Amino acid sequence: MSEFLFEIGVEELPTTEVPGIIQQLSEKVPDTLKNEGVQFEKFEVFVAPRRFGFVLDGLSDTTPDRIVEKKGPAVNVAYDKDGQPTKALLGFLKSNESTLEDVKIVENYVYITKIQKGIKTEEVLKKVVPQIIYGLKFRKPMKWGDGKYEFVRIPHHLLAVYNGRTLDMEIFELKSSNKTIGHRFVRDDYFEVNSYKDYLEKMDNYYVIPQIEKRREFIIKQLEEFEKQGFEVDKDVSLIEEVAILTEYPKMIQGEFLEKYLELPEELIRTTIKHHQRSFTVKKNGKITNLFLAFIDMPEDVKGNARKGYERVINARLEDARYYYDKDIRVPLESFNEKLKEMVFQKELGTLYDKVKRIEKISQHIIEILGLEKKSDTILRTARLCKADVGSHVVYEFPELQGIMGRIYALKDGEPKDVAWGIEEHYSNNPTTIEGAVVGIADRIDTVVGNFVIGNIPSGSKDPYGLRSKVDDIYSIVEKFSWDLDLKPIISAACEELNKELPTGLFEFFENRFELYNTPLRYDIARAVRELWNKPLRGILSAQAIMELVGTDEFEHLLVGFERVHNISRKHESNYFDSAKFIQDEEKELFEKYLEVKPVVLDYIKHLNYKDALRKITELRPFIDKYFDKVFVMVEEEDIRLNRLGFLKTIDELFSEFGDLTLIEKKLQA
């Protein structure tokens, strides 16, 4: 069994390209080798700021022999009228190193079957590795050599070691070797490696950690060591990932900012330090301190210059933040709404102020539908202020604090806590306040409807305004708060606010998203309840109730019976029937059971108890079975036939309260 180590050294990688490189190598390398018949036991991708590559271990020495079948010319082309092989056939055989004995005829075509001997794995690697590297795609590739070459960044060296020796290949006019380079700020001389183990050991000596997961661990270990002194570090996962991508050898340093900046809101301090200097804030006894932790890409900060540089920049940024914050708190939060009149939300949808007015109106509709009049004042106040902080100086400089600063400023103005938190939480898909939930739904509906009105409709993978996730958020919020909310009148109200008619395909868009929202339960159940999209809580509860019963014998028989009811009545438009016209005992018995079951089922549904409603409706099962065993619906007498169809249509409508149950996969067949 063999090992192959590959690395391409490049200039500094953009952080945005790293996830794509990892994903592409993780997919392309094993897939390509498997297609070539190369077997291996272990595969690992590594990426650092100035290099990336992979290692394969447990490689087979050769690919297995394969039986190859090739299609040749048609029979009338391969043989002449006397049945002798033509030049076309002989040329085909020669090019494939075959003889007439290898020929077989299938459907008037000549085929040959031959055993293709295995190829040495190292020969396969020489061929496919350059193809894989040339085939990598990047967001913003760099060109060089008069535009002849294009890659993520200009490459400088190529390491290719197969079982301890250099595997000859050439990429971008670079010839492979068994040499690589260490950390650029420590030891930037080239050195030889003969295996992956040797590579990792020497890289450690040269202050490079090639694997991103090992750099994550190294970062976390240093932060945790610092916490042993009685501190608590904000170990932000995304920041740890960013530092791991940016550094080959992440070394922690400690710094301090001026204590006077501790007067600023904690969120503002944390954002300034995290987003603008990629550093970690530190707490003690639950309170933020003036300490921060940063990571440099070198073994140590010998003269403390890196620490001083961080402190100088962070103090400067905090001074800017304090200036903007002091300026903002001189005026009420609501006053920033005036600035929204100058800020375009979307070109065809007016300003942010226009959007706020629409959010207020849509929120009012939601209040009325849900009966939230007692919370009306705080909900509408939240709607009024929900975008105000966008006009503030701090949010202009630190846009990631949108909503957070709204909450901070609202509390300073003496607004109710529910209003303040509602301002922040209306951006969240998991709000805790009713205010944040209602305004969040209103905001998202306005955005989705508005974009459909102006033709910004998601297609394929393109969804620049995130409309799919906004609809998913609406369903998530409705489910969390158990709100029996009908979305159709709200969507219609949103259209009215824009003075537009309902856009084509809008309801279908919501319906499709609702099916996907429920798919984690089971795809056929999600499909069955999709028609309940406009009352999402009911659809969700129905799906959960079905999930509990599906697969049981009783429910399976019910589905078969219901499908017979549905199929025979679906084209019948009227649900009118006269029970006095029932002739057979079986239809009278089903009618009596229906009269008993219907009010109970509807009462359960009214109180959103879909579990018991579904169990109750299953009591119709034996009566439906008996009905279809004994009653012939499509009789010649028109009045009897129509009466029976009207009755079955009524039963079908009761079942439709749970969705379209015919779409649920059954063990039994109708």
Key descriptive features of the protein:
alpha+beta; five-stranded antiparallel beta sheet; 26 helices; 670 residues; 49% helix; four-stranded antiparallel beta sheet; flat
List the helices and strands and how they pair.
Layout (H helix, E strand, L loop, with lengths): L1 E9 L7 H18 L6 E7 L2 E9 L6 E9 H4 L8 H9 L7 E4 L2 E8 L4 H14 L7 E3 L4 E3 L3 E8 L2 E2 L3 E2 L2 E2 L3 E3 L8 E3 L3 H10 L6 H16 L4 E2 L3 H10 L3 E7 L9 H12 L2 E5 L2 E11 L7 H24 L8 H4 L3 E3 L3 E2 H19 L5 H10 L7 H5 L6 H9 L4 H9 L8 H20 L13 H15 L5 H11 L8 H13 L4 H7 L6 H14 L3 H17 L15 H22 L3 H8 L3 H10 L7 H18 L15
Antiparallel strand pairs: 1-3, 1-9, 2-3, 4-6, 5-6, 7-8, 9-10, 11-12, 13-14, 15-17, 16-18, 17-18, 19-20
Helix pairs in contact: 1-4, 6-7, 8-9, 11-12, 11-16, 11-18, 12-15, 12-16, 14-15, 15-16, 16-17, 16-18, 17-19, 19-20, 20-21, 21-24, 22-25, 22-26, 23-24, 23-25
